[in-house]
């Protein structure tokens, strides 16, 4: 029997710093971007530095966010590849939403939903970076590219903000104890076995020969 007191390392210090840098730069870029985008949301500028300041800081927050996403990609892309179980998981996703976890294939370190969030954020970050650079230096781009950037930048932003709203809900409210993983770096065996059974078994087999 594995003691419930045991702490299983989930995110090391580098991963936690990386993740919270992405969260901070994302929230700042999102608030300033929304304030610049719509007069109805201009009041958000007051929360993030004021109208004049945010016109200068927004692109830099975007640069920091995409740089951290590059770091995240280098660190996690290999782990985020979908395997056969993940594809079955995605086909039965409604079971996850309705708490019928035992009808889903077991997950590794990340479940298929988390992997999809990762890839969707990589994709939208590329869209935001490409279109953002064009909007930052509009005089250097031809008209069609400028028009494409005007359409793509808010679309990619809406996609990534929607994904992060779901992600924050999952992390803060729907999956108790996952904030502890991202704040303090560890989880307890029961949590690991319930949410990430394959990953839990790998940890158990590497750390003890006993079966629970
Ligand atoms: C803004 C507030 C945010 C909160 C409260 C938050 C919370 C969390 C938590 C609790 C975890 C751990 C989940 C686990 O142990 O399985 C996590 C993981 C992760 N976060 Fe965040 N996060 C935030 C923003 C972001 C942003 C902006 C990104 C990137 C665009 C991001 C990308 C990820 C990824 C890729 C993971 C690993 C897979 C996953 O759990 O989805 N997070 N986050």
Task: Describe the protein in words.
The chain has 212 residues and is mainly alpha-helical. The protein has a two-stranded antiparallel sheet. It has a domain at 63-207: Fumarate Reductase Cytochrome B subunit, CATH 1.20.950.20. It has nine helices and two strands. The chain has helices spanning 13-37, 51-76, 84-91, 93-97, 112-136, 143-174, 178-184, 189-195, 197-207, and strands spanning 8-9, 186-187. It is elongated, with a radius of gyration of 20 Å. The termini are close together. The structure holds protoporphyrin IX containing FE (HEM). Protoporphyrin IX containing FE binds at residues 10, 19, 22-23, 26-27, 110, 114, 117-118, 121, 164, 167-168, 171-172, 178-179, 181-182. The site of protoporphyrin IX containing FE has 20 residues, from helix 1, helix 5, helix 6 and helix 7.
Tell me the Rg in angstroms. 20 Å
Globally, the shape reads elongated
Distance between the termini: 4 Å
Low-confidence stretches: none
| CATH fold assignment of one domain | Fumarate Reductase Cytochrome B subunit
How many strands, what sense, and barrel or not for the largest sheet?
A: 2 strands, antiparallel
The arrangement of helices and strands along the chain is EHHHHHHHEHH
CATH architecture of one domain: Up-down Bundle
CATH class of one domain: Mainly Alpha
The number of distinct helices, counting runs of at least 4 residues, comes to 9
The quaternary structure here is single chain
Give the tally of β-strands: 2
CATH superfamily of one domain: Transmembrane di-heme cytochromes, Chain C
Strand order of the largest sheet: 1-2
Structural class: mainly alpha
Which percent bin holds the helix content? 55-70%
């Amino acid at each position: 029997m594995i003691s419930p007191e045991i702490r299983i390392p989930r995110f090391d210090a580098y991963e936690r710093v990386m993740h919270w840098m992405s969260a901070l730069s994302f929230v700042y870029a999102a608030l300033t971007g929304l304030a610049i985008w719509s007069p109805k949301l201009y009041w958000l500028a007051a929360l993030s530095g004021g109208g004049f300041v945010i016109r200068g800081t927004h692109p830099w927050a975007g640069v920091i966010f995409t740089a951290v996403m590059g770091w995240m990609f280098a660190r996690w892309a290999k782990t985020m590849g979908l395997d056969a179980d993940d594809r079955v998981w995605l086909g039965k996703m409604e079971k996850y939403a309705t708490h019928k976890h035992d009808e889903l294939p077991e997950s590794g370190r990340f479940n298929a939903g988390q992997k999809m969030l990762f890839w969707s954020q990589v994709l939208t970050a590329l869209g935001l970076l490409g279109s953002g650079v064009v909007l930052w230096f509009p005089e250097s781009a031809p008209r069609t590219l400028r028009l494409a950037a005007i359409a793509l930048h808010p679309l990619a932003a809406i996609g990534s903000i929607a994904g992060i709203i779901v992600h924050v809900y999952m992390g803060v409210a729907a999956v108790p104890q996952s904030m502890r993983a991202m704040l303090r770096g560890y989880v307890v065996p029961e949590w690991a076995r319930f949410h990430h059974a394959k990953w839990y078994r790998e940890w158990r087999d590497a750390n003890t020969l006993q079966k629970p």
